[in-house]
Structures are given as C-alpha cells and as structure tokens.
Design brief:
Blueprint (H helix, E strand, L loop, with lengths): L1 H19 L4 H16 L4 H9 L8 E3 L2 E3 L3 E3 L20 E8 L11 E4 L4 E4 L8 H8 L8 E6 L9 H17 L6 E5 L14 H13 L6 E5 L5 H11 L6 E4 L13 H5 L7 E2 L2 H18 L4 E5 L5 H10 L3 E4 L2 H4 L4 H15 L5 H4 L10
Bound molecules: flavin mononucleotide.
Length: about 375
C-alpha cells in the first residue's frame, strides 16, 4: 500500500516538475531547505511524514562501519550544507544523511549562477564552492538535536584562505574537525571532502604526498566516530588506486565514489543543451557522473578487498541504479540530483523497489548482493 502511495507521490511530482523548473534553481533549493527546517520543528509533522513516506523492509537493514542503517539510501553532501534537514530526512525515506560540506571559516559562495538544471541531460551545473556560514554557526544551529537516522558531517577546507599553503589548508581543516568533534552534536560519522572541483585556488589532496600528512593529523584527533572520504571521479584508475593505498594506511572506514563530473565531453550530456550553459564555470552532478562512479565503485571494491566500505554516489535516479552500484561493490548509496528530477520522495521509491530486485536474484539480505558483479567486466 505504501509502495503504491510513494510512487503516486513521485508520479505527481514528475507531472508538475516542468512548472517547478520555471523557478531558478538556487532560490528553489533555498526555499526547500527553509521549509524543511520549519516543518521539522512543527510537532507531529516529522512523524506524519514518516507514516506516509517511509518504506521499511528487513532486507534493507544493514550495518556498515559499525553504524546501523535502516536502509542504504542516503542524502549526499551538498543538498543541505547548513544542516537544516536532519529532523525530517528520515520522514522522506532516507536511511542516512551527510550534511555539509561545512568549512571552518564562513564563505558566501562563488559568483552566481551557482546551480543550473539541464533537464534533458539530467544534471545540474554546480558552482557553489563551499558556501557555508562556517562550522561554529552550523554546529550552533543543530546543537541539542537528536535524529532517527545516522547523520554525518562533511568537512572541507575554507574556500578563501589567507594563504594557500598545505600547512594553512591542513590547519583550517583540522580546526573544523576539532570543532565538530568537541561539539557534542551526535554525528554518526565524519566525511572528509577532498574532491570539490569548485575551489578558487588549487590545494590538491589528489597526490598521496599531500593527502598522507592531512590524514595523519586527522588520525591524531582520535575521532569518536568513523571517518569517510569523499573521492573524485576524474582521476585515472592508477591515481585512484594510489590514493586508496594511502587511505588504507590510516583509520578510514569508508570511501564515497564520488563527487562531481568535471569533463564536459561526457557522453551523457545532450550537447545542444550543454551549449546553453557553455559560458558558466562549474561542474556536473547526476547522469554525467553515473558511469564513472559505477566504474570506480567496482575498481575500489576489487582494490581494497574489504578493508574499506564503499559508498556509491553519482547518477542514482531509480532502484535499478542503486542496485547496480550495490552489485558493483557499494554497501551504501547516496544521491542529490534525483531529489530534483524524480522528487523529494525518491529515496522512499528506491526503498520500495529494491526488495523485489534483491528477491528476484535470490538474495535474502542486501549485504549478500554487495560486490557480486565486481569481478564481471561486462557489467
Ligand atoms: C547543488 C549541489 C551541491 C553539492 N555540494 C557538495 C558539497 O558541498 N560537498 C560534497 O561532497 N559534494 C557536493 N555535491 C556532490 C554530491 O554530493 C554528489 O557527489 C554528486 O552530485 C553526484 O551525485 P548525484 O548524481 O546523485 O547528484 C553537490 C552536488 C550538488 C548537486
């Protein structure tokens, strides 16, 4: 019954979506966040949303990095950079959420436009560059709250630094981690974001020589909860494996593949539609991320051999997309763009449809499906 209802809500959203898309992306996004925060504070509303939209199934319950998840579908970093949604994110069906990316210092964001949709290409141009009110302000907003699903915080370096050296960047990131660690806010995990392609000045953690000192500093913080790392999708396979080799030398529990697509030649773009945004800087979510993140989930699964959990992110719109990433090696999945093109109930729809896909293939539990296609080059 709930399955029918969530698909009905999804169908209704997709019918009116062309009208919603008449509103510019960033104001629409800000409105959704403000409404979410408002509704989350009205007594009874989160419970009502849960009753209507949350789809639970024992086959989807899983434990990853020592954290229990009622379902494997998370809201990825970037949708809710100021942590306005954790009170209702479970009410729209998600199994977990990464808030942020939050930075130590405040930044008003890169110049406009910073979010633009391309409907045919099922992608968004993103150029926010870590807009953030800063770690202290974000923590103050959510201090004292508790949540029904695991909430993690994504942390990156403040975009405009006083000086662009690795020492300064590392110190900035460590200060942000320290504030989050000591805040008393009940985060279930921390996510280090090393892969935002929209920074003003290049400080790159894509070389093991640069990443290792930062991971050593984070190790010394003795974080009380697991550390995840948000990975780029644009590196070569060898460079990705070199980063994974470095990461495995530190207490890191999971890697998320991955962040935005930089390559405008990706075949998922409708070229005529892409040309309408040719003059704008920024990078791409959604469908142009799908194939490469599918590939990297598989590559990472084969390379790390169980020493890290893999979180698949990029171009997940339907249950089949989530299922493909799980079969490639993802223990959890995350999404952002599908909430715009499929609707805010998309996690509930995926959770409604995943059990049948698992059962069709004879799996009694989601964990049995993780990585079954990782050895198959055809898939
Ligand atoms: C508007 C927007 C803002 C984003 N901001 C962040 C961010 O702050 N930190 C981050 O790690 N990823 C960020 N991302 C990337 C997403 O987390 C995700 O990796 C990417 O969009 C691919 O997933 P998707 O195809 O489901 O959107 C952002 C994505 C979008 C669409």
């Amino acid at each position: 019954m709930k399955k029918i209802f969530v698909h009905f809500v999804g169908g209704a959203y997709r019918t009116v979506a062309p009208l919603i898309f008449l509103v510019d992306s960033e104001p629409a996004h800000d409105f959704v966040l403000d409404m979410s925060e408002f509704m989350g504070k009205i007594s009874g509303v989160p419970a009502l949303m849960r009753a209507c939209l949350r789809v639970s199934h024992p086959i989807l319950k899983t434990t990853v990095a020592g954290i229990d998840f009622e379902n494997p579908v998370g809201l990825a970093a970037g949708f809710d950079h100021e942590a306005q949604m954790p009170r209702i994110v479970d009410g729209i069906g998600f199994g977990f959420q990464t808030v942020g990316t939050v930075t130590n210092g405040a930044y008003e964001g890169n110049p406009y436009p910073r979010i633009k949709r391309l409907v045919k290409s099922r992608t968004m141009l993103v150029y926010k560059g870590f807009k953030s009110t800063g770690m202290s302000a974000v923590l103050a907003r959510i201090k004292g709250e508790t949540w029904r699903v695991p909430i993690g915080i994504s942390i990156g370096r403040t975009n405009p630094l006083k000086e662009y050296t690795y020492e300064a960047a590392n110190a900035d990131i460590i200060e942000a981690f320290t504030k989050a660690r000591d805040s008393g806010v009940p985060f279930s995990y921390f996510e280090l974001n090393i892969s935002c392609p929209n920074m003003l000045h290049e400080i790159s953690y894509y070389q093991p020589d640069h990443l290792a000192p930062l991971l050593a500093l984070i190790r010394d913080l003795k974080l009380p909860k697991p550390l995840f790392i948000k990975m780029p999708i644009g590196l070569s396979d060898d460079a990705t494996k070199a980063l994974l080799d470095t990461i495995m030398q530190y207490p890191v529990a999971a890697v998320t593949f991955g962040n935005l697509q930089v390559d405008r030649k990706n075949p998922a773009f409708d070229q005529a539609e892409l040309a309408t945004l040719a003059k704008y800087p920024g990078n791409w979510s959604g469908m142009p991320c799908q194939q490469q993140s599918d590939h990297l989930v598989k590559l990472a699964y084969n390379h790390v051999k169980g020493r890290l959990a893999i979180i698949g992110c990029g171009g997940i719109f339907k249950a089949v997309d989530a299922y493909r990433k799980i079969r490639n090696g993802a223990s959890l999945v995350q999404l952002v763009t599908a909430t715009v093109f499929e609707g805010p109930q998309v996690a509930a729809e995926i959770c409604a449809d995943l059990p049948a896909l698992l059962a069709r293939d004879g799996f009694k539990h989601i964990s049995e499906a993780v990585g079954v296609d990782a050895g198959n080059p055809e898939v």
